[in-house]
Amino acid sequence: xxxxxxxxxxxxxxxxxxxxxxxxxxxxxxxxxxxxxxxxxxxxxxxxxxxxxxxxxxxxxxxxxxxxxxxxxxxxxxxxxxxxxxxxxxxxxxxxxxxxxxxxxxxxxxxxxxxxxxxxxxxxxxxxxxxxxxxxxxxxxxxxxxxxxxxxxxxxxxxxxxxxxxxxxxxxxxxxxxxxxxxxxxxxxxxxxxxxxxxxxxxxxxxxxxxxxxxxxxxxxxxxxxxxxxxxxxxxxxxxxxxxxxxxxxxxxxxxxxxxxxxxxxxxxxxxxxxxxxxxxxxxxxxxxxxxxxxxxxxxxxxxxxxxxxxxxxxxxxxxxxxxxxxxxxxxxxxxxxxxxxxxxxxxxxxxxxxxxxxxxxxxxxxxxxxxxxxxxxxxxxxxxxxxxxxxxxxxxxxxxxxxx
Length: 405
Known about the structure:
This is DUF4185 domain-containing protein. This protein is mainly beta. It folds into two domains: about 70 residues, no CATH class; about 270 residues, Tachylectin-2, Chain A, CATH 2.115.10. Helix 2 packs antiparallel against helix 3 and helix 2 packs parallel to helix 4. The longest helix is centred in the first third of the chain and has 15 residues.
């Protein structure tokens, strides 16, 4: 999903939108739009069948998003047939850094240019034997992916050769590392050398979590070699953790002109989504919120099942699958059953399919579990194979290669 604007043939004019008020007109316009893209027949039929259940602006926006993503990847004509089916899954091993010794979790992925940035949660400094002796930690960190899924490259290390805090803790907001943590997910590219990152401020004195609020930070690549990304928070936070969803804490994806950010919320098992035009991603007033039927400019304060797009999700990330020609959400759930799961949909808001198990993991500690399953599609752009990482508690990231049928 490149950074160019959608070609005009994938866009629906303002005048056409204004005239398109009836269901028949909507579907005629969509059919013409779909027909202009050289997609395989099976993919075109699936898209038209899905859009047939939509109407008005929702259908038009869905058509644009689907075709902008699907059009450029039509070279991958050999696609998998839904529902998702796994031919085999192989545990590759433990993920380690080439340049330091740490224990950490999460490991979301995002690209800026040719760099794949892996973003982590709590990062404990360790030694060559990975003992539990205390040496210090950060609440998040960043490393680059390599050609080997089991090896990552940490850059910008401190004087003791350990990773530094990636999304900063700011004294101007009254924060200190002893009590505050920054939860982060994947970086999303907005322009060459630039991106954004959604963060969740966590005030946790004595280890008790209080999720204060979610916000946005900019990510700027340096001209050094290796490039050292610089993260700048735009504010203490934007969305209040008590009354609004924590947008971005279940990852984000850029699709066409929009960035979609998914988030949990307090006292609910559902996940909610906001979106923004990529060039307005640093402007809070430009965000729209999914209310279960359409996008609204008013912020979401009253939410429940209707507004949710996922349910009982632990952590995961949405990607585009070239193999299936759909969005794919790879995740672990809240049941702590050691399963890596996937759902698919034709739009970022769903409706999403029933989950399919990609891999059954084995805990490294009796009575424990895995969490934070994350897909890494850049290892095989065809989508036939998908590397997935997950955290095996406590703080061991492992990788598995999934081959679809």
